[in-house]
Each structure stands twice: as structure tokens, then as C-alpha cells.
Design brief:
With 87 residues, the chain is of the alpha+beta class. The protein contains 2 helices and 2 strands, in the order βαβα. It has helices at residues 24-42, 73-78, and strands spanning 8-11, 45-48. The protein has a two-stranded parallel ribbon. The protein is globular.
Length: 87
Amino acid sequence: TTGEKSKLVVIDYLECITGPYSDPTANSALIANQLKDIANELDICILLLLQPQKQAGDPSEPLLSMRNVKGSSVIEQACSIIFTMWR
């Protein structure tokens, strides 16, 4: 409404966005790539909240690998930076 361009978009969280596929992993991969394209095209930062895989360990322990991101390895490729937070 102010006419100023947004510089940050926060999405809570990736799996809440629906896609055309019945497989949630395929949808997450497609959407992650589309969000990367949008960020590059509009020159904005997209902060995308993701969950860890269930077998990643105890929530009180830090996630030390991108391999623990829930979903396809395409998500790893689509994200410029992945940082983790834990309880």
C-alpha cells in the first residue's frame, strides 16, 4: 500500500504450500525451486521455515547437516543458506 518494494518474505512453513502433485516431497521440491526463482527475479530475501526429518534426532540437539532438512535434496540445492535453530 505504501508503494515500496518488499525486501523480505517469510513463509511458515514450506509444507503448508500446496502443489500439483500427490507426493509431498515432489511438491516441496517444486515449490522450493519456484521460490528461488521468485527471489532471484524480484531481488528479495525469502526466509523459508522447514522442519527436520523425524530421524534427525532429539529436538534439544543442534542440527549439523543440511541432510537433516525434511524433504528432497532439491530443497538443499534451492536454498542459498540453511541455518538451524533448536530448543
